[in-house]
Write a structure and sequence with these properties.
Helix content: 25-40%
Number of strands: 14
Order of helices and strands: EEEHEHHEEEEEEEEHEHHEHHH
Largest sheet: 6 strands, mixed
Structural class: alpha/beta
Radius of gyration: 18 Å
Distance between the termini: 40 Å
Bound molecules: zinc ion, fe (iii) ion
Number of helices: 9
């Protein structure tokens, strides 16, 4: 099976080194910066052939240029609409396209919302979501509409099986869960997850990956149908509609100010 090594980058970013054990080939998801990725490639004695970018933001593509200088011929994947804004892009992906490195085969979901070209990479039950889905939260809606972001999270990613492991782009989990708690103070899953994450973080470890089954219980952006959450939203905004996109819009705006 494919091996996955989280590589902390910058302040709170994760790049992920993916290793195909049969061919010793490696790919990196979202190399924020060159140095830590290069070190991990050296340590593991693997052959880096591929970059998978989830979107064009600098904290996800910052290592592209230097990696392509040191690994000539490296393939750089991103969404077709990110042409001209992902450095060195060689492969232009659309929703449902297949990707491969070594013997490892995956596919992509187009997830507009955070950016118009945001994508999730799927390898078996492992999903690399970039800044679309975080543990306990989601990315800010910069380029798409709230409706698109809701659809990306709840329909595109939301239809994946419960045992999907989510490898997200930032260690924001503790802050996300504190916010989630303000929306659902009585949700015991959020409380126990927050306690567990605080312990994990105090040991210097990270919260990635997270299980989709667990996110369905704690992540407010996947819970816009929940009555307790809806009740809170109505208290904040007495005139808001109860359809999931309206609820999503209110809580995304509350999170922007949290
Ligand atoms: Zn981003
Ligand atoms: Fe980011």
């Amino acid at each position: 099976p494919m091996k996955i090594i989280p590589i902390p980058c910058l302040k709170d970013n994760f790049a992920y080194l993916l290793i195909c054990p049969e061919t010793n080939e490696a790919a990196v998801v979202d190399p924020s910066e060159y140095e830590p990725v290069f070190k991990e490639v050296q340590n593991r004695k693997v052959r880096l052939t591929t970059i998978f970018n989830t979107h064009h933001h600098w904290d996800h593509v910052g290592g592209n240029d230097e990696l392509s200088r040191h690994f000539p011929g490296i393939k750089i994947h991103a969404h077709i609409s990110d042409r001209d804004r992902v450095p060195g892009q060689t492969d232009f992906l659309e929703d449902g396209d297949f990707v491969q490195f070594g013997n490892q085969k995956g596919s992509i979901l187009h997830n507009p919302g955070h950016t118009s070209g945001a994508i999730t990479y799927l390898f078996g039950n492992m999903a690399f979501t970039g800044d679309t889905l975080f543990s306990g939260g989601c990315g800010r809606v910069f380029e798409g509409t709230m409706e698109q972001m809701h659809h990306s999270l709840n329909v595109k990613i939301g239809k994946l099986p419960d045992d999907t492991q989510l490898f997200f782009g930032h260690e924001y989990t503790e802050n996300n869960l504190r916010f989630a708690q303000t929306l659902e103070p009585k949700n015991e899953d959020i409380q126990s997850q927050l306690t567990q994450i605080q312990r994990v973080r105090s040991e210097g470890k990270w919260s990635t990956p997270s299980l989709l089954a667990s996110e369905r219980k704690i992540n407010p952006f996947l819970r816009c149908h929940d009555q307790a959450l809806q009740k809170h939203v109505i208290q904040e905004q007495p005139y808001s509609n109860l359809d999931p996109v309206s609820i999503f819009t209110v809580i995304r705006k509350l999170k922007d100010q949290f």
